[in-house]
Specification:
The chain folds into 3 domains: about 5-70, Winged helix-like DNA-binding domain superfamily/Winged helix DNA-binding domain (Arc Repressor Mutant, subunit A); about 90-165 and about 270-290, D-Maltodextrin-Binding Protein, domain 2, CATH 3.40.190.10; about 165-265, D-Maltodextrin-Binding Protein, domain 2, CATH 3.40.190.10. Helices cover about 40% and strands about 20% of the residues. The protein has helices at about 5-15, 20-25, 30-45, 60-90, 100-105, 110-120, 130-140, 200-210, 225-235, 245-250, 280-290, and strands at about 50-55, 55-60, 95-100, 120-130, 145-150, 160-165, 165-170, 180-185, 195, 220-225, 240-245, 255-260, 270-275. The protein has a 6-stranded mixed sheet, sandwiched between helices. Strands 4-3-5-13-6 form a 5-stranded mixed sheet, with helices on both faces. Helix 1 packs across helix 2 and helix 1 packs across helix 4 (about 60-90). The mean pLDDT is about 90. This is LysR family transcriptional regulator. Pfam families: HTH_1, LysR_substrate. Keywords: DNA-binding, Transcription, Transcription regulation. Belongs to the LysR transcriptional regulatory family.
């Protein structure tokens, strides 16, 4: 197949405009030139992409597939440009960091802001994953630094203390469970829950905790932050499971009951996870030192 980015940009413009002439105008080409390029593109791919109609064009199934992939190509190109731009502005290093939901929402914003202020030549990409996923990625060498709440037996990684916290149950002040100070997780599974969005690490963790008890968690609504969970719970939507720090550090809100969970897994002491600290790149070592409070030890 022989085609270039100009052909793909033209095709996307025509597909979105559903009109060859208007699509050509978007990429600053004459309609005759655009029509010629589209014929060559179809010949190169070996199948029609556009159905020419009296008042515009529509896409064939092949055209739909090409449009989907072309959009992904341009999204990747934009991401590539975004990743490279900092280097043109003086950034000399990059660190990939994976962390669980708890760390990502509760502690890392302040920690990373402090690090980047002291190390303006470094950029960081942060991705949210479950703790087991983070540990395995670090063990395989795919990521240099992770922040986790649990490890995996046999994983060859080093764990360094980061923050101590605990998952707690929150309930509206007038909820039947609100008078308790402690409760087993199994005794609240008959009530609906407010959860972080599906795919978040804590969502996966909580659903697995319920499944381990042979139960299914009823999720009434999913939101994007611990603060939103607290607000929904305060409004009476359901119960929530959040880090204690999310309740203590949040802005003033309606009365909210905080109940301790009796499960050992509720203790969520966060740790920085690395494969071997002495083998870290200098920038990753700087980040680990900042997270663990050992920057003064660096030469």
């Amino acid at each position: 197949m022989h085609y270039d980015l100009t052909d793909l940009r033209l095709f996307v413009a025509i597909a979105e405009a559903r009109n060859l002439t208007r699509g050509a105008e978007r990429v600053h080409l004459a309609a005759s030139s655009a029509s010629h390029r589209m014929r060559l593109l179809e010949q190169s791919i070996g199948t029609p992409l556009l159905v020419r109609e009296p008042r515009g064009v529509s896409l064939t199934r092949a055209g739909d597939a090409l449009l989907r992939h072309a959009r992904q190509v341009f999204a990747q190109l934009e991401q590539m440009h975004a990743d490279l731009t900092p280097y043109a502005k003086g950034v000399r290093g990059h660190v990939s960091l994976w962390a669980n939901t708890h760390a990502t929402h509760a502690f890392l914003p302040d920690s990373l802001a402090a690090f980047l202020k002291r190390h303006p030549q470094v950029s960081i990409s942060l991705e949210e994953h479950t703790s087991p996923e983070v540990v395995m990625a670090v063990a395989r060498g795919e990521v240099e630094v992770g922040v986790v709440a649990e490890s995996i037996e046999g994983a060859e990684v080093e764990l360094l203390p980061y923050r101590a916290d605990r998952l707690v149950l929150i309930a509206p002040a007038d909820h039947p469970i609100a008078q308790r100070t402690r409760t087993p997780f199994a005794e609240v599974l008959d009530y609906p829950f407010v959860m972080l969005h599906s795919g978040s690490a804590i969502h996966t963790f909580t659903m697995n905790a319920a499944a381990a008890l042979g139960r299914h968690l009823e999720v009434r609504i999913q939101v994007r932050s611990f603060e939103a969970v607290c607000r929904m719970v305060s409004a009476g939507v359901g119960l929530g499971l959040v880090p204690r720090s999310a309740v203590a550090d949040g802005p003033p809100r309606e009365p909210l009951a905080v109940i301790e969970l009796e499960e050992s897994w509720a203790q969520r002491d966060l740790k920085v996870c690395v494969r071997k600290r002495e083998q870290l790149s200098r920038f990753a070592a700087d980040l680990v030192a900042c997270l663990t409070g050992s920057e003064a030890e660096l030469p």
